[in-house]
Automatic annotation (TrEMBL), chain A:
It comes from Pseudohalioglobus lutimaris. Belongs to the FAD-dependent oxidoreductase 2 family. FRD/SDH subfamily. This is Succinate dehydrogenase flavoprotein subunit. GO terms for biological process: anaerobic respiration; electron transport chain; tricarboxylic acid cycle. Its cofactor is FAD. The keyword Nucleotidyltransferase does not apply. The lineage of its organism: Bacteria, Pseudomonadati, Pseudomonadota, Gammaproteobacteria, Cellvibrionales. It is an enzyme of class 1 (oxidoreductase).
Automatic annotation (TrEMBL), chain B:
It comes from Pseudohalioglobus lutimaris. The lineage of its organism: Bacteria, Pseudomonadati, Pseudomonadota, Gammaproteobacteria, Cellvibrionales. Heme binds at residue 69. It holds the Pfam family Sdh_cyt. It is found in: Cell inner membrane. It comes from the Bacteria. GO terms for cellular component: plasma membrane. Pathway: Carbohydrate metabolism; tricarboxylic acid cycle. GO terms for biological process: cytochrome complex assembly; tricarboxylic acid cycle. SUPFAM superfamilies: Fumarate reductase respiratory complex transmembrane subunits. The heme is bound between the two transmembrane subunits. GO terms for molecular function: electron transfer activity; heme binding; metal ion binding. This is Succinate dehydrogenase hydrophobic membrane anchor subunit. The chain crosses the membrane at residues 20-45, 57-76, 96-118. A ubiquinone binds at residue 81.
UniProtKB/TrEMBL annotation, chain C:
Its cofactor is [4Fe-4S] cluster; [3Fe-4S] cluster; [2Fe-2S] cluster. It comes from Pseudohalioglobus lutimaris. Residues 135-165 form the 4Fe-4S ferredoxin-type domain. This is Succinate dehydrogenase iron-sulfur subunit. NCBIfam families: dhsB (TIGR00384), PRK05950.1 (NF004616). Pfam families: Fer2_3, Fer4_17. One of its GO terms (biological process) is respiratory electron transport chain. Two distinct, membrane-bound, FAD-containing enzymes are responsible for the catalysis of fumarate and succinate interconversion; the fumarate reductase is used in anaerobic growth, and the succinate dehydrogenase is used in aerobic growth. The lineage of its organism: Bacteria, Pseudomonadati, Pseudomonadota, Gammaproteobacteria, Cellvibrionales. The gene is sdhB. Keywords: 2Fe-2S, 3Fe-4S, 4Fe-4S, Electron transport, Iron, Iron-sulfur, Metal-binding, Oxidoreductase, Transport, Tricarboxylic acid cycle.
Length: 590, 119, 234
């Protein structure tokens, strides 16, 4: 068939980060033949960079803490377009998922009572916003993602999961019924291309922060899952919602955890003023990330930025004392010294809002099953395809994710996908085999690239794409300016499609991988641009200068981007949690 | 785990401990001899010193320590540098030959030492 | 212009490795070595190396820079370049796949050997297992390892016996679990380590401490393991 080898599994997980490895662990424990395809050795996935912690009502800091309060915060944080059934599931299942991680060995920091240490994070409250700041983010110093990722890899090792490390999935394979029956993947070491056949294909490919020029994301965050889904004709949801983290190190883009502000740090402008007191009188520096990021940009625009260019603000930590900084935030001290040449013990860190997280992605239900919407507006499950983690849009983050909720999203929905697939496999999954032409279709892009001649330099095209996104689709957006950006993207599409791959060698050819990644970046960027231009309101992370108000009448809904005709549609938000009353949309203030 | 039938104690700890203990014994022995030499020594006092059973036993202990110490050390050297990884198949032959040679030399030295002491 | 010399080897076209020189315009900035590699790659796309997080936490870009192992993404030129010349080679002691990319399977195999996961078969409580801050503190300086292999590939004992000596990185992880108050397999772990190679090929050379980009101290951890083995055996 097509001259390439076929490898078969019950379940294949694309992506070896937190979500992928949590799903893989669940499947491996059930005894089904499971494989993880990861383009890097799993502990090098971007989950490793998560710092502050995993938010969850485990009632360690406050014995009376309640997952419903966490749910309230998350719904509010999402600016009311998070699906309430999914948020309910995440917040209520969360403690179990976190305790499992601890039992697996995750080295959480501890309280005097020996319980998991929890720190305050932005957007957290007690008693449905009435009881003041909560401390709900479970932490392993400021290396929680690292600790979590390594623990999950170790757990998978213990359970003999099969890893295809440094293999790169290029495209989905669909059968004649439109069901997903696996992926085409390249072994980077040898260059061999294979068809990995599977009854359940789980996308856990993470985010795509590299569509922006300034990002906290790793080089590998190129939106491969979203790219593959869009090319296969599947829609993405809320893809215009991009979180800009308030505190990326100025110039370098590396992340400084919100935990810094949780531990008592705060932002100051060039006059030394703690400006968040003006924008969010109650929560101050611990308001939602979208709110803080916008406030910072306003300070800079209004001429109160720091530095010779006035293009950043400062994060002040020195008042916390060396002991607290070295024990609670040792990684931050290290990063700041390396990338900002500033020792937080003595001086503030220069920070600026930096692209951080993709709230949107492949729409799924709480079981991780990927969805599309049929002509009459009903959800349709895409057979064979699942998604979890950042690439998925369940949606628990809506228009703005709360700090610490991404790690929870990973483990809860990675686990949920695994559990669901385990049951489905037990009941029996029957999918028609891919035909030779189905596989050839999955190979088409790769074949085209491998036989390409001429074309422009990949690195330069990527830079142009990133600058376009940075300039036209940043923290504040404007219709006219976005339309200009879309035009530039139109021009880029053809050039990126025919980008140059002069080196056709097989062994560890990173040029080939980067060219393929660029295609994915472009798919994500274009979907973002078109959807952002269409959403004529300001909500969460999507702030329009020309539509400054939230428009619940028209836009209290998910956006859906359909790649075939580049159309933006709408999908209803779920307002029907199973065990609690609906949280009705309110004006969102902190 | 890798088992090494030619190692001395066949356990990492015992080899390591023996290496240290034998080292200490050798140090003590050479300090003892050294102090005797510093005080000035002639044939008669040297012979008298080795007439006593205590000194003979101590010397035998030092010889055995040297044997063990040397074996553990040479074994480590041979398994570092004379390996199939570094030299191919001939590494195995060379290593075994080297180890046999070392053990023969050490054996000869021990017998010779006993002969000198009680011969 | 910075003079950069890079180790090149493509198994499909080269019979043996060679060094290739590049001139890089750093714009007078104190770039990280990874930034320099990115500049080179944007011109010559055939240069291959691994990279991911670019902030020193994923451990992808362990390289040998002017003779010393380290992470390219957090090594500023000012730290490594003397006399305007930067020589970049793959981590020593491991087979080269292509250019700066080494085959790390032996390194990972040693990591797996130490059973780097918590072993505790007692029924788990409904909440987390409790651990005092003092017991948790014992894991500091151990759990932070990023598996970049800078230490193990700087260790002569690992060069000679990568298949039998676990190496500083693996041993640091071995001790991370031996030191964890929640782990109950201490005796089993120790008996797996008690052979002449796994631990005892450490001769205290301390290259590992010298190169660890996270400032960890594998030699000290190995000393702790040795003491535990000794206490158990005597």
């Amino acid at each position: 068939m097509s001259g390439i080898r076929t490898i078969s599994f019950d379940g294949v997980i694309v992506g070896g980060g937190g979500a992928g490895m949590r799903a893989a662990l669940q499947l491996a424990q059930s005894g089904y033949k499971t494989a993880v395809i990861s383009k890097v050795f799993p502990t090098r996935s971007h989950t490793v960079s998560a710092q502050g912690g995993i938010t969850c009502a485990i009632a360690s800091d406050d014995p009376n803490d309640d997952w419903r309060w966490h749910m309230y915060d998350t719904v509010k944080g999402s600016d009311y377009i998070g699906d309430q059934d999914a948020i309910e599931y995440m917040c209520s299942e969360g403690p179990q998922a976190v305790f499992e991680l601890e039992h697996m060995g995750l080295p959480f920091s501890r309280t005097e009572e020996g319980r998991i240490y929890q720190r305050p994070f932005g957007g957290q409250s007690k008693n449905f916003g009435e009881g003041g700041q909560a401390a709900r983010t479970c932490a392993a110093a400021d290396r929680t993602g690292h600790a979590l990722l390594h623990t999950l890899y170790q757990g998978n090792m213990k359970n003999n999961t099969v890893f295809f490390n440094e293999w790169y999935a290029t495209d989905l394979v669909k059968n004649q019924d439109g069901a997903v029956v696996g992926v085409i993947a390249i072994c980077m070491e040898t260059g061999e291309t294979v068809y990995v056949k599977s009854k359940a294909t789980v996308f856990a490919t993470g985010g795509a922060g590299r569509i922006y020029a300034s990002t906290t994301n790793a080089h590998i965050n190129t939106g491969d899952g979203v790219g593959m889904a869009l090319r296969a004709g599947f829609p993405v949801q809320d893809i215009e919602m991009w979180q800009f983290h308030p505190t990326g190190i100025h110039g370098a883009g590396t992340l400084v955890t919100e935990g810094c502000r949780g531990e008592g740090g705060y932002l100051i402008n060039k006059d030394g003023e703690r400006f968040m007191e003006r924008y969010a009188p109650n929560a101050k520096d611990l308001a939602g990330r979208d709110v803080v990021a916008r406030s910072m940009v306003l300070e800079i625009i209004e001429g109160r930025g720091c530095g010779p260019e006035g293009d950043h603000v400062f994060l002040k930590l020195d008042h916390l004392g060396e002991e607290v900084l070295e024990s609670r935030l040792p990684g931050i001290c290290e990063l700041s010294r390396t990338f900002a040449h500033a020792d937080p013990v003595k001086e503030p860190i220069p920070v600026v809002p930096t692209c951080h997280y993709m709230m949107g992605g492949i729409p799924t239900n709480v079981h991780g099953q990927a969805l599309t919407v049929d002509a009459s507006g009903n959800d349709q499950i895409i057979p064979g395809l699942y998604a979890c983690g950042e690439v998925a849009c369940v949606s628990v983050h809506g228009a703005n994710r709360l700090g610490g909720n991404s790690l929870l999203d990973l483990v809860v929905f990675g686990r949920a996908s695994g559990l669901y697939i385990e049951n489905a496999l037990r009941d029996g999954i029957e999918l028609r085999d891919a035909s030779e032409s189905d596989i050839e279709q999955g190979m088409a892009r790769l074949d085209k690239l491998n036989s390409s001649t001429g074309g422009e330099n990949v690195a330069e095209l990527r830079k142009e794409l990133q600058n376009t996104m940075q300039n036209h689709f940043g923290v504040f957006r404007n219709g006219e300016f976005m339309r200009e950006g879309i035009k530039k993207l139109d021009d880029l599409r053809g050039r990126i499609d025919s980008a140059n791959l002069s080196d056709k060698s097989m062994a560890y050819n990173t040029a080939r991988i980067e060219a393929l990644e660029l295609h994915n970046l472009f798919e994500v960027a274009e979907a973002t641009a078109i959807t952002a231009e269409a959403r004529n309101e300001s909500r969460g992370a999507h702030a329009r200068e020309d539509f400054q108000e939230r428009d619940d009448e028209n836009w209290l809904c998910h956006s859906m981007y359909y790649p075939a005709d580049k159309r933006v549609g709408k999908r209803a938000v779920n307002f029907e949690p199973k065990t609690v009353d609906t949280f009705q949309p309110k004006i969102r203030t902190y | 785990m890798v088992r090494s039938v030619t190692s001395f104690g066949r356990s990492g700890v015992s080899d390591w401990l023996l290496q240290r203990v034998s080292g200490v014994i050798l140090l003590a022995y050479f300090l003892c001899i050294g102090s005797a030499l510093v005080g000035g020594v002639d044939y008669l006092s040297w012979r008298d010193m080795f007439e006593g059973t205590g000194m003979r036993v101590f010397t035998l202990l030092a010889i055995l320590s040297l044997a063990a110490h040397a074996w553990i050390g040479m074994w480590a050297v041979s398994t570092d540098y004379m390996t199939e990884r570094l030299m191919g198949k001939k590494g195995n032959v060379l290593r075994i030959a080297f180890q046999i040679a070392c053990s023969l030399v050490i054996f000869v030295y021990v017998i010779w030492g006993v002969q000198i002491l009680w011969g | 212009m910075l003079q950069v010399s890079i180790y090149r080897y493509n198994p499909e076209t080269d019979s043996e490795p060679s060094m290739q020189d590049f001139q890089v315009d750093t714009g007078g900035k104190d770039l990280m070595v990874l930034d320099v590699l990115e500049l080179i790659k944007s011109q010559d796309t055939t240069v291959s190396y691994r990279r991911s997080c670019r902030e020193g936490v994923c451990g992808s870009d362990g390289l040998n820079m002017n003779g010393k192992n380290g992470l390219a993404c957090i090594t500023p030129l000012s730290e490594t370049v003397k006399g305007n010349k930067l020589v970049v080679r793959p981590l020593p002691g491991l087979p080269v796949i292509r250019d700066l990319v080494v085959d790390m399977s032996m390194f990972y195999a040693q990591y797996e050997k130490v059973q780097p996961y918590l072993i505790n078969d007692t029924p788990a409580p409904a909440i987390e297992r409790l651990q005092s801050p003092e017991d948790r503190e014992k894991l500091d300086g151990l759990y932070e390892c990023i598996l970049c292999a800078c230490c193990s590939t700087a260790c002569p004992s690992f060069w000679w016996n990568p298949d039998r000596f676990i190496g500083p990185s693996g041993l640091l992880q071995a001790y991370r679990f031996l030191a964890d108050s929640r782990d109950l397999a201490t005796d089993e772990r120790l008996s797996r380590l008690d052979d002449p190679f796994s631990v005892f090929r450490c001769h205290g050379i301390q290259n590992c401490i010298n190169v660890c980009p996270k400032g960890l101290n594998p030699t000290r951890a190995i000393g702790h393991i040795r003491n535990m083995l000794l206490a158990r055996a005597t």
